[in-house]
Amino acid sequence: MLNDQTILITGGTGSFGTTFVQKVIKDFSPKSIIIFSRDEKKQFDMRNAMHSPVLKFLIGDVRERDRVFQAMKGVDYVFHAAALKQVPTCEFFPYEAVMTNVIGTQNVLDAAEECGVKKVIVLSTDKAVYPINAMGLSKALLEKIMLAKARTEASDTVFCGVRYGNVMYSRGSVIPLFVEQISKKLPVTITNPAMTRFLLPLPVAIELVLYALSHGKNGDILVRKSPASTIDTIADAMLDIFKSKYGKKVIGTREGEKLHETLITQEDLAKAEEYDEFYRIKNLEKLDYDKYFTEGMLNQFPKEGYTSENTRRLNFEETRELILSLREIQELLA
After folding, report:
1. Is 90 exceeded by the pLDDT of residue 148?
2. In CATH, what class is 6-164+201-224+263-294?
3. Of 85, 127, 225, 258, catalytic
4. Pairwise CA distance, residues 78 & 305, whole Å
Protein backbone atom coordinates (compact mmCIF):
# COMPACT_ATOMS: atom_id res chain seq x y z
CA MET A 1 0.00 0.00 0.00
CA LEU A 2 2.91 2.38 0.59
CA ASN A 3 4.71 1.81 -2.69
CA ASP A 4 4.73 4.97 -4.85
CA GLN A 5 2.62 6.79 -2.23
CA THR A 6 3.13 10.05 -0.36
CA ILE A 7 3.17 9.62 3.41
CA LEU A 8 2.95 12.31 6.07
CA ILE A 9 4.02 11.67 9.65
CA THR A 10 3.14 14.29 12.24
CA GLY A 11 5.68 14.43 15.03
CA GLY A 12 7.88 12.39 12.73
CA THR A 13 11.18 13.01 14.51
CA GLY A 14 10.09 11.21 17.68
CA SER A 15 10.80 7.62 18.67
CA PHE A 16 7.97 6.22 16.58
CA GLY A 17 8.59 8.40 13.53
CA THR A 18 12.31 7.69 13.35
CA THR A 19 11.94 3.90 13.55
CA PHE A 20 8.86 3.86 11.32
CA VAL A 21 10.64 5.81 8.58
CA GLN A 22 13.58 3.38 8.69
CA LYS A 23 11.14 0.48 8.32
CA VAL A 24 9.25 2.06 5.43
CA ILE A 25 12.40 2.99 3.51
CA LYS A 26 13.81 -0.53 4.00
CA ASP A 27 10.70 -2.54 3.10
CA PHE A 28 8.74 -0.32 0.71
CA SER A 29 9.24 2.14 -2.15
CA PRO A 30 7.29 5.28 -1.20
CA LYS A 31 7.21 8.29 -3.49
CA SER A 32 7.94 10.58 -0.54
CA ILE A 33 7.81 10.68 3.24
CA ILE A 34 6.96 14.06 4.73
CA ILE A 35 8.14 14.70 8.27
CA PHE A 36 5.92 17.39 9.78
CA SER A 37 7.19 18.63 13.14
CA ARG A 38 8.24 21.77 14.97
CA ASP A 39 11.78 20.93 16.11
CA GLU A 40 14.33 22.04 13.50
CA LYS A 41 17.25 20.47 15.39
CA LYS A 42 15.65 17.02 15.38
CA GLN A 43 14.81 17.41 11.69
CA PHE A 44 18.42 18.41 10.96
CA ASP A 45 19.73 15.36 12.83
CA MET A 46 17.28 13.01 11.13
CA ARG A 47 18.11 14.36 7.67
CA ASN A 48 21.84 13.89 8.24
CA ALA A 49 21.43 10.44 9.76
CA MET A 50 19.24 8.96 7.03
CA HIS A 51 20.35 10.68 3.81
CA SER A 52 17.26 9.45 1.95
CA PRO A 53 16.05 11.19 -1.23
CA VAL A 54 12.41 10.33 -0.41
CA LEU A 55 12.49 12.23 2.89
CA LYS A 56 11.05 15.73 2.98
CA PHE A 57 10.94 17.93 6.05
CA LEU A 58 8.33 20.56 6.88
CA ILE A 59 8.55 22.78 9.93
CA GLY A 60 5.14 23.30 11.46
CA ASP A 61 2.90 22.65 14.43
CA VAL A 62 -0.34 20.65 14.39
CA ARG A 63 -1.85 23.50 16.40
CA GLU A 64 -1.50 25.79 13.36
CA ARG A 65 -4.54 24.89 11.28
CA ASP A 66 -3.53 26.69 8.08
CA ARG A 67 -0.06 25.17 8.15
CA VAL A 68 -1.51 21.67 8.57
CA PHE A 69 -3.78 22.18 5.55
CA GLN A 70 -0.79 23.34 3.49
CA ALA A 71 1.25 20.31 4.47
CA MET A 72 -1.56 17.86 3.67
CA LYS A 73 -1.86 18.63 -0.06
CA GLY A 74 -1.09 15.62 -2.23
CA VAL A 75 -0.74 13.21 0.71
CA ASP A 76 -2.03 9.63 0.43
CA TYR A 77 -1.57 8.33 4.00
CA VAL A 78 -1.18 10.08 7.36
CA PHE A 79 0.29 8.70 10.57
CA HIS A 80 -0.59 11.07 13.40
CA ALA A 81 2.08 10.71 16.09
CA ALA A 82 2.49 14.34 17.20
CA ALA A 83 1.59 14.67 20.86
CA LEU A 84 2.51 15.94 24.27
CA LYS A 85 2.88 12.58 25.97
CA GLN A 86 4.84 13.00 29.18
CA VAL A 87 2.49 12.75 32.15
CA PRO A 88 4.23 15.37 34.35
CA THR A 89 4.40 17.92 31.51
CA CYS A 90 0.70 17.56 30.79
CA GLU A 91 -0.17 17.71 34.49
CA PHE A 92 1.63 21.04 34.89
CA PHE A 93 0.41 22.43 31.56
CA PRO A 94 -2.95 20.77 30.76
CA TYR A 95 -4.04 23.48 28.34
CA GLU A 96 -0.95 22.80 26.24
CA ALA A 97 -1.92 19.12 26.15
CA VAL A 98 -5.37 20.12 24.91
CA MET A 99 -3.93 22.37 22.23
CA THR A 100 -1.63 19.68 20.82
CA ASN A 101 -3.44 16.41 21.50
CA VAL A 102 -7.02 17.59 20.97
CA ILE A 103 -7.08 20.73 18.79
CA GLY A 104 -4.05 19.51 16.85
CA THR A 105 -5.75 16.19 16.14
CA GLN A 106 -8.89 17.93 14.91
CA ASN A 107 -6.76 20.03 12.57
CA VAL A 108 -4.98 16.96 11.17
CA LEU A 109 -8.18 15.01 10.59
CA ASP A 110 -10.01 17.97 9.04
CA ALA A 111 -7.11 18.62 6.68
CA ALA A 112 -6.86 14.96 5.70
CA GLU A 113 -10.55 14.81 4.89
CA GLU A 114 -10.47 18.09 2.93
CA CYS A 115 -7.38 17.04 0.92
CA GLY A 116 -8.65 13.57 0.04
CA VAL A 117 -6.19 11.50 2.07
CA LYS A 118 -6.91 7.79 1.72
CA LYS A 119 -6.33 6.79 5.33
CA VAL A 120 -5.35 8.34 8.66
CA ILE A 121 -3.99 6.31 11.57
CA VAL A 122 -3.86 8.04 14.95
CA LEU A 123 -1.60 6.77 17.72
CA SER A 124 -3.09 6.48 21.20
CA THR A 125 -2.06 5.09 24.56
CA ASP A 126 -3.26 2.96 27.45
CA LYS A 127 -3.45 6.17 29.49
CA ALA A 128 -6.50 7.17 27.41
CA VAL A 129 -8.45 4.35 29.10
CA TYR A 130 -10.08 5.30 32.40
CA PRO A 131 -7.89 8.43 32.32
CA ILE A 132 -6.82 10.05 35.59
CA ASN A 133 -4.21 12.48 34.26
CA ALA A 134 -4.26 15.33 31.74
CA MET A 135 -2.26 13.40 29.17
CA GLY A 136 -4.68 10.47 29.28
CA LEU A 137 -7.71 12.77 29.18
CA SER A 138 -6.39 14.55 26.11
CA LYS A 139 -5.58 11.25 24.37
CA ALA A 140 -9.06 9.95 25.19
CA LEU A 141 -10.49 12.98 23.41
CA LEU A 142 -8.11 12.31 20.50
CA GLU A 143 -9.77 8.91 20.14
CA LYS A 144 -13.27 10.37 20.37
CA ILE A 145 -12.43 12.92 17.66
CA MET A 146 -11.22 10.13 15.40
CA LEU A 147 -14.35 8.06 16.05
CA ALA A 148 -16.59 11.03 15.29
CA LYS A 149 -14.72 11.66 12.03
CA ALA A 150 -15.11 8.01 11.05
CA ARG A 151 -18.88 8.41 11.26
CA THR A 152 -18.89 11.23 8.69
CA GLU A 153 -20.89 9.62 5.89
CA ALA A 154 -19.79 12.06 3.16
CA SER A 155 -16.07 11.41 3.72
CA ASP A 156 -13.99 9.07 1.56
CA THR A 157 -11.11 9.11 4.05
CA VAL A 158 -10.74 6.13 6.39
CA PHE A 159 -9.94 7.07 9.99
CA CYS A 160 -8.68 4.46 12.44
CA GLY A 161 -6.35 4.21 15.40
CA VAL A 162 -3.97 2.06 17.38
CA ARG A 163 -3.61 1.90 21.14
CA TYR A 164 -0.69 0.36 22.96
CA GLY A 165 1.03 0.44 26.31
CA ASN A 166 4.49 1.71 27.22
CA VAL A 167 6.85 1.57 24.25
CA MET A 168 10.18 0.45 25.61
CA TYR A 169 13.00 3.00 25.39
CA SER A 170 10.77 5.70 23.91
CA ARG A 171 11.62 9.24 24.91
CA GLY A 172 10.51 10.06 28.43
CA SER A 173 9.93 6.42 29.40
CA VAL A 174 11.37 4.68 32.45
CA ILE A 175 14.15 2.59 30.85
CA PRO A 176 16.13 5.58 29.48
CA LEU A 177 15.70 7.20 32.91
CA PHE A 178 17.17 4.12 34.59
CA VAL A 179 20.05 4.13 32.07
CA GLU A 180 20.82 7.76 32.89
CA GLN A 181 20.70 7.16 36.64
CA ILE A 182 22.90 4.07 36.41
CA SER A 183 25.43 5.91 34.23
CA LYS A 184 25.66 8.61 36.90
CA LYS A 185 26.17 5.97 39.62
CA LEU A 186 22.87 6.83 41.28
CA PRO A 187 20.16 4.52 42.62
CA VAL A 188 17.29 3.99 40.19
CA THR A 189 14.11 5.70 41.40
CA ILE A 190 10.83 3.82 41.46
CA THR A 191 7.52 5.22 42.58
CA ASN A 192 5.77 2.03 43.73
CA PRO A 193 7.40 -1.43 43.51
CA ALA A 194 4.02 -3.13 42.89
CA MET A 195 3.12 -0.84 39.98
CA THR A 196 2.68 -2.76 36.72
CA ARG A 197 3.20 -1.54 33.16
CA PHE A 198 2.69 -3.06 29.73
CA LEU A 199 5.97 -3.58 27.89
CA LEU A 200 6.12 -3.29 24.11
CA PRO A 201 9.25 -3.04 21.96
CA LEU A 202 8.96 -0.29 19.35
CA PRO A 203 9.26 -2.65 16.33
CA VAL A 204 6.20 -4.53 17.59
CA ALA A 205 4.26 -1.27 17.92
CA ILE A 206 5.21 -0.43 14.32
CA GLU A 207 3.94 -3.80 13.13
CA LEU A 208 0.58 -2.94 14.71
CA VAL A 209 0.51 0.38 12.85
CA LEU A 210 1.27 -1.37 9.55
CA TYR A 211 -1.47 -3.89 10.28
CA ALA A 212 -3.88 -1.01 10.88
CA LEU A 213 -2.80 0.47 7.56
CA SER A 214 -3.64 -2.69 5.63
CA HIS A 215 -6.58 -4.05 7.64
CA GLY A 216 -8.03 -1.25 9.79
CA LYS A 217 -11.60 -0.28 8.95
CA ASN A 218 -13.28 3.05 9.50
CA GLY A 219 -13.42 3.78 13.22
CA ASP A 220 -11.41 0.76 14.31
CA ILE A 221 -9.11 0.98 17.30
CA LEU A 222 -6.58 -1.85 17.17
CA VAL A 223 -5.01 -2.83 20.48
CA ARG A 224 -1.83 -4.90 20.68
CA LYS A 225 -1.75 -7.59 23.34
CA SER A 226 1.30 -7.06 25.53
CA PRO A 227 2.91 -8.66 28.56
CA ALA A 228 3.54 -6.59 31.66
CA SER A 229 6.03 -6.38 34.46
CA THR A 230 6.25 -4.64 37.80
CA ILE A 231 8.39 -1.52 38.02
CA ASP A 232 10.38 -3.32 40.71
CA THR A 233 11.21 -6.19 38.35
CA ILE A 234 12.18 -3.78 35.55
CA ALA A 235 14.51 -1.97 37.95
CA ASP A 236 16.08 -5.24 39.13
CA ALA A 237 16.63 -6.34 35.54
CA MET A 238 18.29 -3.04 34.63
CA LEU A 239 20.57 -3.16 37.68
CA ASP A 240 21.59 -6.70 36.74
CA ILE A 241 22.17 -5.93 33.05
CA PHE A 242 24.47 -2.99 33.81
CA LYS A 243 26.04 -4.54 36.92
CA SER A 244 25.06 -1.54 39.03
CA LYS A 245 25.59 -1.75 42.78
CA TYR A 246 23.77 1.44 43.67
CA GLY A 247 20.38 -0.17 44.16
CA LYS A 248 16.88 1.29 44.14
CA LYS A 249 15.15 4.19 45.84
CA VAL A 250 11.37 4.26 46.33
CA ILE A 251 10.11 7.84 45.94
CA GLY A 252 6.36 7.28 46.17
CA THR A 253 3.56 7.38 43.58
CA ARG A 254 3.35 10.71 41.80
CA GLU A 255 0.27 12.74 40.95
CA GLY A 256 -1.50 11.31 37.89
CA GLU A 257 0.04 7.82 38.08
CA LYS A 258 -2.00 4.61 38.16
CA LEU A 259 -1.02 1.46 39.99
CA HIS A 260 -2.06 -0.57 36.93
CA GLU A 261 -2.78 0.53 33.36
CA THR A 262 -5.79 -0.53 31.27
CA LEU A 263 -5.66 -1.07 27.51
CA ILE A 264 -9.35 -1.92 27.02
CA THR A 265 -12.29 -1.05 29.25
CA GLN A 266 -14.86 -3.63 30.34
CA GLU A 267 -17.36 -1.88 28.12
CA ASP A 268 -15.16 -1.97 25.00
CA LEU A 269 -13.96 -5.50 25.71
CA ALA A 270 -17.57 -6.68 25.56
CA LYS A 271 -17.83 -5.63 21.91
CA ALA A 272 -14.21 -6.19 20.82
CA GLU A 273 -13.08 -8.89 18.42
CA GLU A 274 -10.15 -10.91 19.77
CA TYR A 275 -7.34 -12.26 17.59
CA ASP A 276 -4.08 -14.03 18.43
CA GLU A 277 -2.02 -10.88 18.97
CA PHE A 278 -4.48 -8.01 19.19
CA TYR A 279 -8.04 -6.82 19.78
CA ARG A 280 -10.18 -4.88 17.34
CA ILE A 281 -12.59 -2.40 18.94
CA LYS A 282 -15.26 -1.56 16.39
CA ASN A 283 -16.83 1.86 16.10
CA LEU A 284 -20.54 2.54 15.94
CA GLU A 285 -20.83 3.24 12.22
CA LYS A 286 -23.71 5.64 12.73
CA LEU A 287 -25.12 7.33 15.81
CA ASP A 288 -28.89 7.27 15.67
CA TYR A 289 -29.82 9.61 18.50
CA ASP A 290 -33.32 8.18 18.95
CA LYS A 291 -31.98 4.65 19.29
CA TYR A 292 -29.03 5.85 21.35
CA PHE A 293 -31.38 7.07 24.08
CA THR A 294 -33.94 4.24 23.89
CA GLU A 295 -32.10 1.06 22.87
CA GLY A 296 -29.06 -0.60 24.37
CA MET A 297 -26.53 -2.78 22.57
CA LEU A 298 -24.80 -4.92 25.19
CA ASN A 299 -26.35 -7.46 27.52
CA GLN A 300 -23.40 -8.16 29.80
CA PHE A 301 -19.89 -7.00 30.56
CA PRO A 302 -16.81 -9.07 31.36
CA LYS A 303 -15.70 -8.94 34.98
CA GLU A 304 -12.81 -6.63 34.15
CA GLY A 305 -11.06 -4.94 31.27
CA TYR A 306 -7.70 -5.83 29.76
CA THR A 307 -5.12 -4.46 32.19
CA SER A 308 -1.43 -4.63 33.06
CA GLU A 309 -2.48 -6.53 36.18
CA ASN A 310 -4.37 -9.36 34.45
CA THR A 311 -2.26 -9.72 31.29
CA ARG A 312 0.66 -12.16 31.15
CA ARG A 313 3.14 -11.18 33.86
CA LEU A 314 6.84 -11.38 32.99
CA ASN A 315 9.20 -12.72 35.64
CA PHE A 316 12.72 -11.40 36.24
CA GLU A 317 14.41 -13.51 33.54
CA GLU A 318 11.72 -12.75 30.94
CA THR A 319 11.88 -9.03 31.69
CA ARG A 320 15.66 -9.09 31.48
CA GLU A 321 15.61 -10.88 28.12
CA LEU A 322 13.04 -8.45 26.70
CA ILE A 323 15.13 -5.45 27.79
CA LEU A 324 18.26 -7.06 26.33
CA SER A 325 16.47 -7.43 22.99
CA LEU A 326 16.28 -3.64 22.62
CA ARG A 327 18.70 -2.21 20.06
CA GLU A 328 19.49 0.75 22.30
CA ILE A 329 20.50 -1.50 25.20
CA GLN A 330 22.63 -3.65 22.93
CA GLU A 331 24.43 -0.55 21.64
CA LEU A 332 25.09 0.66 25.17
CA LEU A 333 26.49 -2.70 26.22
CA ALA A 334 28.68 -2.85 23.10
Report:
1. yes
2. alpha beta
3. 127
4. 30
